[in-house]
Design a protein that fits this description.
It is a single chain. With 354 residues, this protein is α/β, with parallel strands linked by helices. The strands form 3 sheets. It has a 7-stranded parallel beta sheet with strand order 8-7-4-3-2-1-11, covered by helices on one side. It is globular. 41% of the residues lie in helices and 13% in strands. β2, α2 and β3 form a beta-alpha-beta unit. It has a single domain, classed as Luciferase-like domain (TIM Barrel, Alpha-Beta Barrel), CATH 3.20.20.30. The chain is built from 12 helices and 11 strands. The relative contact order is 0.17.
């Protein structure tokens, strides 16, 4: 297998818990808070622990164990102001944002953060949010066609003057944004991420975005698409697996089942049934991005070995969630990340192919 890597070292991101309920839909204790002071300290801890990125989630209405939410772009800007190196990715929905308006916000955020702002384009899985706001809920592939246009438009606005664009969803006439973001040859525009599992999502990720996020997969699945990953690292394998078992046993069943009812139509509605959550089990959905399927569960040595194995299959960025974010991000930085760097240095780099 040949892969094209963006960087020699795998990079690390964490889910920002700006949404209540943590990262698992379970009644297990989670020493994690969605408030800003907790997240400010967490961002600083993550930065000092070797994380490269943070991803702010986007929800607009109370649902499925996520009763309270802070808006993603404003929250990301606040975290950028509290850190010095960490890049913060704000998740956004086309259909609820106009690309030129977001481009203006993003250019300002980029200047205020010295070039550390990024966005993750989420085409939408929760029909209830759109209908509650009176916005049309498009068919699956149409949502991704809209996202493709959104990505094209925002990149053009960030990098060109006198932009004209005529699409099915967006029309731009002789528009110039100034100031532009802090573009450089190494980063010609703020980084654009596309999320999703489907064929349409992968097409957008490859053609229009800089990065592609997908839900968690095992080794077989990652040969088909890259992964978004969740970790459980403990001092012993038994302790890690006991934690996983407790999370599943204490799953909030009504919330998980409600989430499953809302999302499984998203994957099932694609023509080839490869969309997100199309084949997710109840246990998979306790972590609502299929994170347990990555099997990043065990001792620091076991987790590090599996991370490097994912890298050798083409993964450049691991997006991790945790149970008790503050202490576990610090633990990951102290115990797991140094082992990953040692393994990367010791192993022959994967063949680079185009």
């Amino acid at each position: 297998m040949t892969t094209e890597h963006i960087a020699d070292q795998i990079r690390f991101a964490y889910w920002v818990p700006n949404v209540s309920g943590g990262l698992v839909t379970s009644d297990i204790e989670q020493r994690t808070s969605w408030d800003f002071e907790y997240n400010k300290k967490l961002a600083q801890t993550a930065e000092h622990s070797g994380f490269d990125y943070a991803l702010s989630q986007v929800r607009y209405t109370a649902s499925y164990g996520a009763e309270y939410q802070h808006e993603s772009t404003s929250f990301s800007l606040a975290l950028l102001g509290a850190t010095e190196r960490l890049k913060v990715i704000a998740a956004i929905h086309p259909g609820l944002w106009h690309p030129a308006v977001l481009a203006k916000f993003g250019a300002t955020a980029d200047h205020l953060s010295n070039g550390r702002f990024a966005i993750n384009v989420v085409s939408g899985w929760f029909a209830g949010e759109f209908t509650a706001l009176g916005e049309p809920w498009l068919e699956h592939d149409e949502r991704y066609r809209r996202s493709a246009e959104f990505l094209e438009v925002i990149r053009k606005i960030w990098t060109e003057d006198d932009v004209n664009y005529g699409g099915d969803f967006y029309r731009i006439r002789d528009f110039t944004l100034k100031p532009k973001p802090l573009n450089t040859p190494e980063r010609p525009n703020p980084e654009l991420f596309q999320g999703g599992n489907s064929t349409a999502a992968r097409r957008n990720g490859g053609r229009y975005a800089d990065w592609y996020f997908s839900n968690g997969k095992d080794f077989d699945g990652v040969t088909e698409q890259l992964d978004e990953l969740r970790t459980i690292a403990r001092d012993t394998e038994k302790e890690a697996r006991d934690t996983l078992r407790e999370i599943i046993e204490k799953a909030n069943k009504p919330a998980v089942e409600g989430f499953r009812d809302a999302v499984q139509q998203a994957g099932a509605s694609t023509k080839d049934r490869k969309g997100m959550w199309a084949d997710s089990t109840f246990e998979d959905l306790v972590q609502y991005n299929d994170g347990f399927r990555t099997k990043l569960i065990g001792t620091p040595e076991q987790v590090a070995e599996r991370i490097v194995a994912y890298k050798e299959r083409g993964v450049d960025l691991i997006l991790a969630g945790f149970l008790h974010f503050q202490e576990e991000v610090e633990y990951f930085g102290a115990k797991v990340l140094p082992l990953v760097r040692e393994l990367e240095a010791a192993r022959t780099p994967a063949t680079v192919g185009h």
